[in-house]
Amino acid sequence: MKTRRRPYTEQRPQDLGGGVWSVPVPIPGNPLGYTLVYAVESPQGPVLVDAGWNHPEAWEALSGGLATLGMDVASVRGVVVTHFHPDHAGLAGQVREASGAWIAMHEDDAALVRLMIGYAGDAQDTFRSDMLRRAGADPDEAREASGGRAAPPAQPDRELRDGDLVDLPGRRLRAVHTPGHTPGHICLHLEDADRLFTGDHVLPGITPHVGIYPYDRDDVDPLGDFLRSLDRVAGFGPLDALPAHEWTFPNVAARAAEIRDHHEDKLQRLRALLAERPEPLTIWEVAAMMTWNRPWDELSPMLRGMAAGEAAAHLRTLEVQGHVRRHAGVEPVRFQALDS
């Protein structure tokens, strides 16, 4: 079952056996390359797990890939979205238009989609610019990092909760709430085949982005949620994993443990960095000190904004654990180590 990641140009739709197929759908201009959209067979038409990015090339790949596998996009019964991000939910609306399919996602991400749809573009830019400024970015950086937003995905017809069965006649596909990457991220356990669709929660070669937005929120702990969700997925044991990116792989529990260890190590290194600096630091300053896949000076404004979101999530978890304290009532917000 295991296949290694290849460039999108070398990807092909695949029959994974047991009434499950995968269709690689490109993400133009994105280093991830593609989203793996899965089709699960049912007597009343296939149900898709995710749909891919809203782009003409992506639509051609999705509809053409399904046709290669003997399925017409017009026969799709439903699209269950692992989370609201555009490389997963972007084409769900077009699938619905072509087939009359329902769209389902977790209720927490559905609430975010409603918020996005009701938020004007200029208001979004102002919100992001203010958020970056409160994190410690200078005004120019804040403006540069606040653009480039994708259009909101289609609003879902159905909302799922943890443990709900997806409307998939003749099969048992159960939602497993795994917050962290987004508040409403779900994995999907295909119980009749004992496989797990992992979305972006557990990927074989990379770790998903876990950030906090706005950066200075003190009422949520996305990284803490993510670590607990990894423990929950590890409890499924050595199931085959069908992720949304890269390649399918065995033993989801082992990979979940590796990702958990990665973040625990990152938290420890961040604690050490903060302990070396007696003065309180802004989120932006902390992000610039952390290790990324490229040096901070080489990151684009958009990637710096994402790095700041991830730095904020790690700081928040350290705050919850009692290792750092927040200097409230100041702008930009600052954090300081409480122990060595």
Automatic annotation (TrEMBL):
<protein>
    <submittedName>
        <fullName>MBL fold metallo-hydrolase</fullName>
    </submittedName>
</protein>
<feature type="region of interest" description="Disordered">
    <location>
        <begin position="136"/>
        <end position="164"/>
    </location>
</feature>
<dbReference type="GO" id="GO:0016787">
    <property type="term" value="F:hydrolase activity"/>
</dbReference>
<keyword id="KW-0378">Hydrolase</keyword>
<dbReference type="InterPro" id="IPR050855">
    <property type="entry name" value="NDM-1-like"/>
</dbReference>
<dbReference type="InterPro" id="IPR001279">
    <property type="entry name" value="Metallo-B-lactamas"/>
</dbReference>
<feature type="compositionally biased region" description="Basic and acidic residues">
    <location>
        <begin position="136"/>
        <end position="146"/>
    </location>
</feature>
<dbReference type="InterPro" id="IPR036866">
    <property type="entry name" value="RibonucZ/Hydroxyglut_hydro"/>
</dbReference>
<feature type="domain" description="Metallo-beta-lactamase">
    <location>
        <begin position="34"/>
        <end position="245"/>
    </location>
</feature>
<dbReference type="InterPro" id="IPR036388">
    <property type="entry name" value="WH-like_DNA-bd_sf"/>
</dbReference>
<dbReference type="Pfam" id="PF00753">
    <property type="entry name" value="Lactamase_B"/>
</dbReference>
